[in-house]
Design a protein that fits this description.
- This protein is α/β, with parallel strands linked by helices.
- It has one domain: Aldolase class I (TIM Barrel, Alpha-Beta Barrel), CATH 3.20.20.
- It is about 30% helix and about 15% strand.
- It has 11 helices and 14 strands.
- It is globular, with a radius of gyration of 19 Å.
- The chain starts with 7 loop residues before the first strand and ends in a 28-residue tail after the last helix.
- Its cofactor is FMN.
- This is Alkene reductase.
């Protein structure tokens, strides 16, 4: 029987335990460039079996929040090289999350102050984070988007491919395609945000098309064994909705089975909220969802996420419901979370006022058990 602390092969990546650090946006990368303290932050947490970085923009157009990192400038890649080097020196494994926010952005964050892009010109009921001219930060309503032209989609897919290659060149062990939490790829998949009438709208097969084409481009570039994907089948995050998520996501994972991915990272329920949250007329059947993937021949490591505590995680691994568990906020305040979970030691409390933006405080100054 497997345990939370056993090693695991995640595609081409051998990890020391079955604890992943989930992506956590921290807004400490001015001009989309990771700073030296970012290397310290990830190195401190390198005992996780797999570190998944904060969401990282594949292009300037993909930016949706102030001071989040990117993968599209030489300066950003140099910053990430310092991060991957620090993590590997500490014996850790790290992948980066490839991000395009779609409509969850603001004109002030876009190239030349242009509108954000989306499957359809539907403004999200949501907020984003910008830096005001006086240097202060603020949460503001997302801007009205424009619908992507059909002719733009090949270039968008190419941006994902180039970002994946840049990530590997920067020393990452792999990438995670962000197809969750109401960002661009999920906007295409959900009916509430996709009202297109072309080959990327209407039927389920059309709405999942862009995600599958991105997966194909990335895996061809860097290999399936270094590619994961994040999904959130029922989350309402960033104003996404669908009347039948079970059919959408079952079809998606059946198609993903053919790619032999390293892992599938699943947010169970509402992101950061109730695990039993659902959309549509009936509760989401998580066992059937995973079973559909397995029945289609899928063999990727299955990572569970959302509200797991120590006992839940151990039980989920022991039962075989998941192969790995991703922890998010507990890693913010507990750089040595793996040890604390193993020893059933108390956890530090996180200072929520320092989650987004700032410097070392609330970022690299949390004590370990040894401290």
């Amino acid at each position: 029987m497997a345990t939370l602390f056993d090693p695991l092969q995640v595609g081409d990546i051998a990890v020391a335990n079955r604890i992943a650090m989930a992506p956590l946006t921290r807004n400490r990368s001015p001009n989309a460039v990771p700073k030296p303290i970012t290397a310290t932050y990830y190195q401190q947490r390198a005992t996780a079996g797999l570190l998944i970085t904060e969401a990282t923009a594949i292009s300037h157009q993909g930016q949706g929040y102030a001071d989040v990192p990117g993968l599209y400038t030489p300066e950003a890649l140099e910053g990430w090289k310092a991060v991957t080097k620090a993590v590997h020196e500490a014996g850790g494994k790290i992948v980066t999350q490839l991000w395009h926010v779609g409509r969850i952005s603001h004109t002030s964050l876009q190239p030349n102050g242009s509108k954000p892009v989306a499957p359809s010109a539907i403004t999200a009921k949501g907020k984003t984070y910008i830096i005001n001219p006086d240097g202060t930060g603020a949460f503001v309503d997302t801007s009205e988007p424009r619908a992507l032209e059909l002719s733009e989609l090949p270039g968008l897919i190419e941006d994902y491919r180039k970002a994946a290659r840049a990530a590997i060149d920067a020393g990452f062990d792999g990438v995670e395609i962000h197809a969750a939490n109401g960002y661009l790829l999920e906007q295409f998949m959900r009916l509430g945000s996709n009202q297109r009438s072309d080959a990327y709208g209407g039927s389920i097969e059309n709405r999942i098309r862009l995600t599958l084409e991105v997966v194909q481009a990335v895996t061809r570039e860097i290999g399936s064994g270094r590619t994961g994907i994040r999904l959130s089948p029922v989350t309402p995050a960033n104003d996404v909705s669908d009347p039948d998520p079970q059919s959408v996501y079952t079809t998606l994972v059946e198609k993903l089975a053919a790619f032999d991915l390293a892992y599938i990272h699943v947010i169970e329920g509402a992101t950061g909220g109730p695990r039993d949250f659902s959309q549509g007329d009936k509760p989401f059947d998580w066992d059937a969802f995973k079973g559909a993937y397995s029945n289609a021949g899928g063999k990727a490591v299955w990572i569970g996420n959302n509200g797991y505590d120590r006992q839940m995680a151990m039980d989920a691994i022991a039962s075989g419901n998941v192969d790995m568990v991703a922890f998010g906020k507990p890693f913010i305040a507990n750089p040595d979370l793996v040890r604390r979970l193993k020893e059933d030691a108390p956890l530090n409390e996180a200072d929520q006022s320092t989650f987004y933006g700032g410097g070392e405080k609330g970022y690299i100054d949390y004590p370990t058990l040894d401290d």
